[in-house]
Write a structure and sequence with these properties.
With 320 residues, this protein is α/β, with parallel strands linked by helices. The chain folds into two domains: 214 residues, P-loop containing nucleotide triphosphate hydrolases (Rossmann fold, 3-Layer(aba) Sandwich); 67 residues, Alpha-Beta Plaits (2-Layer Sandwich), CATH 3.30.70.920. It is built from twelve helices and 13 strands. The chain starts with 6 loop residues before the first helix and ends with a helix. 37% of the residues are buried. The structure holds adenosine-5'-triphosphate. Pfam families: ABC_tran. It comes from Hyalangium minutum.
């Protein structure tokens, strides 16, 4: 009889393990005891409103802050014991990296590559982020999207096994954003683990195998984007407003209703079956003598998951 595989042999190797992580700043608890794991080769996204604890979590993972308590392992290693090795094996692209304006793209990548014993060639790093045409351009002459790609090339110079990207596409136009998405997807294809913070739910939905939604230092939801969206039970959403504004109870009888949330001057209804919910909603509105000001329907997103978990909208927080 064949021996049954040990758990270590059957489960995928872990790039990141976080157990009971707590971080306090005097009277503020930034992280209130979180647990999660990221298998090698996954892209994990940290989402949450301002102050949720994302940056603190990522900075602890990057070895830039010490936890108050709890355990963090990257590639089985610990910051307090294995810092030199970890620095060689992870890469960090900050949201706004300041480079020397007068250096060229190639000189900048060469400089950062020189800090590491092994890694990619300068040409490979530039090629991965598709900046070949700008190889000789000075940093000062790059567009915002090209600078973000340069930051990524620098983070990739040591060919890291785990790459941390802090809001990599904030402020970029849609074309540059998609170009960066392609680069990140390519890295996943090479078995690299990527940790991403973002305010863009579409980005998390497209790129992430695992999404961790944080609020007030806690993980309020975790799973694949599809699992999280399925978990709220209503995969279709109706956004609408009426005049006069009706109380939320007015919509309690909408067929297949899962949840009602007020948002701005209107409501968001999560429903299971749009074709039944919509006619029901329209007749409830007219029975109350009200009129629709606006109505739109869409597929549920990670924002609706956040709304269902916390009663607040990530979108509203992101825009504030
Ligand atoms: N150095 C610090 N001293 C005191 N409090 C801090 C410090 N750093 C973070 N905090 C607090 O810890 C909490 C979590 O902050 P953190 O920056 O991790 O949130 P975040 O989710 O990254 O927010 P954002 O999206 O705005 O970057 C907040 O209440 C913040 O004010």
């Amino acid at each position: 009889m064949e021996p049954s595989p040990s758990p270590a042999a059957s489960s995928p190797p872990l790039a990141i393990e976080v157990k009971g992580l707590v971080k306090r700043f005097e009277d503020v608890t930034a992280i209130a005891g979180t647990h999660f794991e990221v298998p090698v080769g996954q892209c994990v996204g940290l989402l949450g409103p301002n102050g949720a604890g994302k940056t603190t979590t990522v900075e602890i993972l990057e070895g830039l802050q010490h936890p108050t308590s709890g355990e963090v392992r990257l590639l089985g290693l610990r910051w307090d014991k294995d810092e030199a090795e970890l620095r060689e094996r992870i890469g960090i692209a900050l949201q706004e990296t300041r480079f020397h304006d007068r250096l060229s793209v190639e000189e900048t990548v060469r400089l950062f590559r020189s800090f590491y014993r092994k890694g990619l060639s300068v040409e490979e790093a530039i090629g991965l982020v598709k900046l070949e045409e700008k190889r000789n351009a000075q940093v000062v002459k790059l567009s915002g999207g090209q600078r973000q790609r340069l930051a990524l090339a620098v983070a990739l110079a040591a060919d890291p096994e785990i790459l941390f990207l802090d809001e990599p596409t904030t402020g970029l136009d849609p074309q540059s954003r998609r170009a960066l998405w392609d680069v990140i997807t390519g890295l996943k294809g090479k078995g690299r683990t990527v940790v991403l913070t973002t305010h863009y739910m579409e980005e998390a939905q497209v790129l992430c195998d695992q999404v961790i939604i944080m609020d007030h230092g806690r993980i309020v939801a975790r799973g694949t984007p599809a699992q999280l969206i399925a978990s709220i039970g209503g995969e279709q959403v109706i956004d609408f407003s009426t005049t006069p504004t009706l109380p939320a109870e007015a919509f309690a009888e909408v067929p297949t209703l899962v949840a009602t949330h007020s948002r701005g001057d209107g409501y968001t209804l999560s429903v299971k079956e749009l074709h039944r919910a919509l006619p029901g909603l329209l007749s409830l509105v007219s029975a109350r003598g009200a009129h629709l000001v606006h109505l739109s329907t869409r597929q549920a997103t990670l924002d609706d998951v956040f709304l269902a978990s916390t009663g607040r909208s990530l979108r509203e927080d992101a825009q504030s």
